[in-house]
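2024-03-11 09:14:02 DEBUG pipeline.ingest accepted 1 chain
2024-03-11 09:14:02 DEBUG pipeline.ingest length=279
2024-03-11 09:14:03 DEBUG pipeline.predict start
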Amino acid sequence: MNKLFTLLALIISINLSAQKLQFDKKFVESEDKWVAFQADSIGNYNFGFIYVDAQAGLTLEYEGFFKIDQAGKFIMDKKEKTSSMKYRLQPNNTLVAFIPESKFAELHIQKTPDWLKHYKGDENSIGRLYRWGFMYNGWNECEKALEYLEKANKMDPEYKGLSVELAFSYNCLKQYQKAVDVLKIALKQNPLDAYTNKELIYAETKNGNIQDAENVCRKVFKECKDKTYNSENAYNILQAHYIKKDIKNFNHWFTEANSYLMSNEKIKSLAEQMKTELK
């Protein structure tokens, strides 16, 4: 009976220890956080500090590894850290755990490492806010990107590239009218910018203004030297007609924009599939 009680107590203790770490955070949610990775086969938890390097992006400053004893104490590897070990992180589905602040002393770490100041610079400068927003958009973390971009917009709405980056976030979050508003302002300064027009055509189709999207698209076809997005623009309008089951306008646009729809094999296949389904 005593052996059974000891075994049960041990199991409960291990479970309580494991509960101190919840592996439910993505890398892109972990900026300026101490994080632990899932334990290896012998119970070692690798850990480190995730921050954003303006040039390299998400980076892990590796600190070492620790174990969790039966009492829930974090026991750090006794080897002294002699050099910096940095790992560039790609946003993916790997989940990490935030290390509780109550465990920092056990791991001999500070909440904010001294070296982090070298990567911060002027945190409130419009340049930094724009770069961080740009990076988070690139990782498809648009809500996080907006935290930076909207602050930058209050400082200088005419900052180069800011309007279209804001619009990207709004489109990503399905706030299409906000995207349309900022893109129209951006196009007053550079009316033939291909990427800005692409975002506007997308936003207008999603906002239900398909005729407006067509008008912008025709202008792009005729006047923009950069043809990079022509197939995508043509497809977005065609898809909008398809979703509405508007056969007349679908067929009209299919004919008008045919050369652009057929110039991209993937888009060509999708366009022909939609045409077949609408018959």
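2024-03-11 09:14:41 DEBUG pipeline.report Confidence is low (pLDDT under 50) at residues 1-19.
2024-03-11 09:14:41 DEBUG pipeline.predict end
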